[in-house]
From TrEMBL:
This is IclR-ED domain-containing protein. GO terms for biological process: negative regulation of DNA-templated transcription. Residues 27-217 form the IclR-ED domain. PROSITE patterns: ICLR_ED. One of its GO terms (molecular function) is DNA-binding transcription factor activity. The keyword Transcription applies. It comes from Rothia kristinae.
């Protein structure tokens, strides 16, 4: 066993720690990032996102799971003049930092959710000074529970202050049943009241189904 660990350490797949333990090395992390992700029909994805923006009038995002985060593949705009451009296409962010990420995280096993929330506590941004960490974490946990119970997450101030969001998983899953993608709408608070969310959900679910046809397992 020690010889195998020494060989793995030599090529960067494993590293030794100060506590004389072993952890994943940088080469193993890079190998994970290079693993095949979902195969995307980018033009079709943008078309479906723009269609939803046309219906709701707001900013629509589509993100796919990327290692322990979410990579945004498109962003489209509606006719409402105040646009929620918090994320750019191509950005890769932690699952707990975005509405699409929360929709994906809500489909992962409880242990993975707890690990991500632990990381979120350590990197919580100073911009959240007006909201206690306990209150913020309670909102996050409610969002994850809503994904499991209702099939979507919605609410204000989950990921960025003064921004509301509505997100749900795209029905494309890995072997463990976790979602590989999500679609979200971001807007100012007044645009995503509970009544309006109920009105938008049918179109959003239809869009998620259409997006599933454009996202395939490798």
């Amino acid at each position: 066993m020690h010889r195998i660990l020494a060989e793995l350490t030599a090529v960067g797949l494993v590293r030794s720690t100060a506590q004389r333990r072993y952890a994943c090395g940088s080469k193993l992390y890079a190998l994970g990032l290079a693993a095949p992700g979902p195969v995307l029909n980018a033009d079709r994805i943008r078309h479906e996102a723009q269609r939803l923006s046309g219906i709701c009038g707001d900013t629509v995002y589509v993100g796919v799971r990327h290692a322990d985060g979410v990579r945004y593949v498109t962003r489209t705009s509606g006719t409402y003049p105040l646009r929620a451009y918090a994320i750019d296409p191509g950005d890769i962010l932690p699952l707990s930092n975005t509405y699409c990420g929360l929709a994906i995280l809500g489909t992962l096993p409880a242990a993975e959710q707890e690990r991500e929330l632990g990381q979120w506590r350590r990197r919580r941004s100073p911009e959240w000074v007006a909201t206690s960490s306990a209150k913020h974490e309670a909102m996050m946990r409610r969002a994850l529970a809503d994904v499991a119970e209702l099939g979507y997450a919605a609410g204000p101030n989950h990921v960025v202050p003064e921004l509301s969001g509505l997100s749900l998983p795209v029905p494309v899953h890995d072997a463990a049943g976790a979602a590989l993608a999500a679609v979200s709408i971001s807007a100012v608070h007044s645009r995503l009241s509970p009544e309006r969310i109920r009105g938008i959900l049918p179109s959003m679910r239809e869009t998620a189904g259409r997006l599933a046809e454009s996202i395939a397992l490798p």
